């Protein structure tokens, strides 16, 4: 009965469905074009195993951080503390291991716990006092960086136990560093959570229309709170991965990841499922961005090209998603 | 010309020929997507006159006001202000710069700013961003203005500390003051759109005496209202619209309440066969409330029995529109006990009420009914995500099947359930929402204006579905200002006045006339 019933959809007039949105694949198309161009222009440096492995492995921290940020974004909330939580977690992990001699795994666990705590506080303030998360997480993020200074004694901590480095970077799987695979696994977990769990679906409704969610029995504050705890936790995991890949940490570690993480999240929302934050789109956006930056640098561009690329991508992504949305709205209205 | 060169229209009013009407509208037409909302209406307001504009919902009075304010553009017709012809369509500012001031229901005041700041904003807000504000002169001007209309409010107090009626009075003086400044002359037309809906009854008279002072100083007032008593009390003349047409204009002292009710409703309503009364006193009470108090509703008690349709109606602002959300726990109640199936609900929340199989279909479908950008499947699945989680996964195949089944059973067109919800028309959206909730086998369905923006065909289908469900033992509470709907649907109707039940009609006694009588007769007994 189900299959025959679904077939009756053919009665519907011709309007846009998800399947008829070519822009879903636009980002992937541009990415492919970019790769082809760089392969042609830098045939000796760009398409080498070493470069590909480096591009994939070097972005794991950013990918994990961006996957954390899309969880509250799905519910319509900005978590601006993620980069600072990364810093706090990295400094906590490195300092406990190097300065206080704790085993690296205990230190890493403590680092992750610091992110959980920031997330709990963020969510508590946002939901209990009904304050815009934008400003709460901005303030809490600054607090987190502030705490990172005494923890790290205001300097770069080096000499972290190489066991952490081993499981992140130095022992690759299929010639690609392990941290890349961690990012892929997290991507799959978030994708599962978004589309296959009640929690993920409710976050979507909260982000789209929280009043509708509430009237349908969704406990909106609880869900927003949990989303902020998850983003804090995942940002802290990104901090541990950061320590693993660099074997060091300092109170300025996280700042550079803030904008790229949001750029990837918004650029990712223009692909696959247009107009929704989605993990695979975010991953594609992360690697699209690094492809462009690495390629340009191999062609001799200065390092500031990174800022141009990330900043430009964020603005273009936001404009694109707005254009696509209003165009679809017009198509529907014209029906 | 005047010294304040705010607009090219400044000073027009000065050149008004003697004997010209303040506002004269003739043959004004407006259609929305081919459906006429105004079919050539007429409205004439004299200088120094308080004029009432009346009519049932959808009669076209709001459309007219919105045309005069520049929100909508008229299709054809003539608009003359103080002898000056304003060709239609008017610009986006409507008649605002031509001697007409508007005060809308929400008053347009910001709680955290002072009275003086509001009034200075009008002088300096537009087009002069860098001009410095001469606060001392502004204060003197505002004080003079308030004193002239005998409104004793300190210009430096925050709007948030003012009472509702004081806010309304500030909004009125502000509008008139801004108008005088723009046109450089006294003698404005003030248009008030339902100004008393949110005011406590005992304070309304304060606003009316302000209107009378305006009148005595040569201003005219157009009062748009549902409330017959107010209109009879304060106006000199009334105009009534019905279905986009002019019914007539009369001098208020020459007509009775009954005359006006007949003008509003038109011919006596034809006989509509009423379904037999189903609810008996011996049937179980499914939901009851005692001493319920909310924003407008005060100390209301009611019982909903199995298998009955209870209508709730009243004037706008009487509180009837608040009841479904209050019973559902969607709006916080100030006091009162809600009992479902003999069990008291201590903290009524939507989640708790849903668990007790009480559901709500809110009046604002677009904002509160569904997430418009999400698909039909997703929207119909919303209450069921936990129920349809099999093991670790949401069973999307099952949810899609269900959406398709709802779509077919409730004749939702188009059938394609992967479309965004916004692509359905109002009627089809409502059918999909009804279908979604019917699937939870609710025992009580709370409806708020269930057929607003729903076409006739879908309306019939919705009534049929509701009747069938009620025959199976479901109970419906329907809050609406649509009398026809109550005649067709309700077993009994509770009429609210001022937040309290003032009247109750049963079975065959429910007619458009009896409802209008009960609603409009308020305050006379």
What does this structure look like?
The complex is a heterodimer of chains A (335) and B (525). Chain A is mostly helical and 335 residues long. Chain A has one domain (4-9, 20-334): ABC transporter involved in vitamin B12 uptake, BtuC, CATH 1.10.3470. Helices cover 72% and strands 1% of the residues of chain A. A two-stranded antiparallel sheet of chain A has the order 1-2. Mean pLDDT of chain A is 87; it is low at 1-19. By secondary structure, chain B is an alpha/beta fold. Chain B has 16 helices and 22 strands. Chain B has helices spanning 61-68, 115-124, 135-148, 164-183, 201-216, 228-234, 257-265, 323-328, 350-355, 365-369, 376-381, 396-409, 426-438, 456-471, 483-489, 512-520, and strands spanning 23-32, 35-45, 50-54, 76-81, 84-87, 100-103, 189-193, 220-224, 237-242, 245-251, 285-293, 300-305, 309-314, 335-340, 343-345, 358-361, 389-390, 393-394, 444-448, 475-479, 492-497, 500-506. In chain B, strands 6-7-8-3-9-10 form a six-stranded mixed β-sheet, with helices on both faces. A six-stranded mixed β-sheet of chain B has the order 16-19-20-13-21-22. A four-stranded antiparallel β-sheet of chain B has the order 2-1-4-5, with no helix packed on it. In chain B, a hairpin with a 2-residue loop joins strand 21 and strand 22 (500-506). Chain B is globular, with a radius of gyration of 26 Å. Chain B starts with 22 loop residues before the first strand and ends in a 5-residue tail after the last helix. The chains are: A mainly alpha (335), B alpha/beta (525).
């Amino acid at each position: 009965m189900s299959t025959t019933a679904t077939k009756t959809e053919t009665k519907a007039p011709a309007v846009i469905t998800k399947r008829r949105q070519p822009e879903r694949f636009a980002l992937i198309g541009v990415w492919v074009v970019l790769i082809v161009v760089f392969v042609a222009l830098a045939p000796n440096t760009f398409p080498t195993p070493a470069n590909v492995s480096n591009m994939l492995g070097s972005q794991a921290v950013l990918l994990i951080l961006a996957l954390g940020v899309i969880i509250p974004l799905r519910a319509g909330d900005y978590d601006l503390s993620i980069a600072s939580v990364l810093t706090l977690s990295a400094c906590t992990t490195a300092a406990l291991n190097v300065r206080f001699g704790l085993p690296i795994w205990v230190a890493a666990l403590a680092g992750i716990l610091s992110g959980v705590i920031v997330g709990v506080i963020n969510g508590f303030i946002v939901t209990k006092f009904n304050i815009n998360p934008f400003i709460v997480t901005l303030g809490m993020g600054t607090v987190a960086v502030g705490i990172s200074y005494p923890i790290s004694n205001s300097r770069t901590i080096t000499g972290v136990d190489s066991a952490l480095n081993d499981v992140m970077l130095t022992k690759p799987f299929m010639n690609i560093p392990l941290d890349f695979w961690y990012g892929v696994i997290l991507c799959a977990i978030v994708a599962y959570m978004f589309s296959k769990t009640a929690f993920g679906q409710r976050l979507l409704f909260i982000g789209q229309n929280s009043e509708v969610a509430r009237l349908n029995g969704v406990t909106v504050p609880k869900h927003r709170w949990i989303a902020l705890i998850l983003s804090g936790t995942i940002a802290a995991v990104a901090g541990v991965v950061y320590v693993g890949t660099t074997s060091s940490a300092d109170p300025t570690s996280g700042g550079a990841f803030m904008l790229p993480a949001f750029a990837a999240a918004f650029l990712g929302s223009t692909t696959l499922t247009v107009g929704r934050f989605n993990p695979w789109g975010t991953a594609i956006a992360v690697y699209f961005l690094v492809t462009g930056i690495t390629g340009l640098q191999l062609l001799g561009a200065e390092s500031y090209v990174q800022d141009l690329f990330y900043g430009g991508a964020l603005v273009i992504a936001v404009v694109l998603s707005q254009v696509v949305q209003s165009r679809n709205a017009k198509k529907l209205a014209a029906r | 010309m005047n010294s304040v060169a705010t607009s090219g229209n400044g000073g027009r009013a000065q050149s008004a020929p003697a004997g010209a009407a303040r506002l004269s509208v003739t043959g004004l037409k407006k259609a929305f997507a081919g459906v006429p909302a105004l079919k050539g209406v007429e409205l004439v307001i004299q200088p120094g006159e308080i004029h009432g504009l009346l009519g049932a919902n959808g009669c076209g009075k709001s459309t007219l006001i919105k045309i005069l304010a520049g929100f909508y553009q008229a299709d054809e017709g003539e608009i003359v202000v103080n002898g000056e012809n304003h060709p239609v369509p008017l610009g986006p500012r409507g008649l605002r710069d031509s001697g007409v001031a508007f005060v809308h229901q929400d008053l347009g005041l910001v709680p955290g700013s002072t009275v003086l700041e509001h009034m200075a904003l009008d002088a300096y807000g537009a087009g002069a961003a860098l001009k410095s504000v001469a606060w001392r002169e502004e204060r003197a001007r505002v004080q003079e203005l308030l004193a002239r209309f005998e409104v004793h409010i300190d210009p430096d107090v925050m709007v948030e500390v003012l009472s509702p009626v004081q806010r309304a009075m500030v909004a009125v003086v502000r509008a008139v003051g801004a108008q005088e400044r723009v046109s450089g002359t006294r003698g404005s037309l003030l248009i008030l759109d339902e100004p008393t809906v949110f005011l406590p009854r005992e304070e309304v008279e304060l606003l009316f005496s302000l209107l009378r002072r305006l009148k005595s100083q040569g201003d005219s007032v157009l009062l748009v209202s549902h409330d017959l008593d107010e209109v009879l009390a304060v106006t000199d003349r009334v105009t009534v619209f019905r279905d986009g047409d002019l019914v007539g204009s009369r001098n208020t002292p020459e007509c009775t309440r009954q005359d006006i009710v007949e003008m509003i409703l038109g011919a006596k309503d034809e006989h509509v066969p009423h379904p037999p009364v189903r609810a008996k006193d011996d049937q179980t009470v499914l939901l009851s409330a005692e001493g319920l108090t909310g924003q407008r509703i005060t100390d209301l008690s009611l019982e909903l029995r199995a298998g009955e349709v209870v209508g709730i109606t009243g004037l706008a602002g009487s509180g009837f529109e608040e009841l479904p959300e209050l019973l559902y726990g969607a709006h916080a109640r100030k006091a009162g006990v809600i009992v479902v199936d003999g069990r008291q609900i201590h903290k009524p929340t939507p989640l708790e009420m849903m668990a007790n199989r009480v559901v709500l279909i809110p009046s604002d479908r677009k904002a509160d009914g569904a997430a418009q950008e999400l698909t039909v499947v997703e929207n119909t699945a919303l209450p069921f995500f936990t129920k349809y989680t099999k093991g670790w996964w949401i069973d999307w195949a099952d949810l899609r099947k269900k959406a398709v089944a709802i779509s077919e059973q409730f004749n939702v067109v188009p059938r394609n359930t992967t479309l965004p919800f916004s692509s359905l028309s109002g009627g089809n959206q409502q059918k999909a929402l009804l279908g979604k909730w019917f699937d939870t086998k609710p025992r009580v369905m709370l409806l708020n204006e269930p057929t607003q923006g729903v076409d006739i065909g879908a309306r019939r289908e919705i009534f049929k579905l509701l009747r069938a469900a009620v025959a199976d033992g479901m109970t419906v509470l329907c809050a609406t200002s649509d009398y026809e709907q109550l005649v067709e649907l309700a077993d009994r109707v509770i009429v609210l006045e001022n937040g309290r039940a003032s009247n109750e009609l049963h079975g065959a006694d429910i007619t458009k006339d009896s409802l209008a009588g009960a609603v409009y007769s308020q305050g006379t007994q």
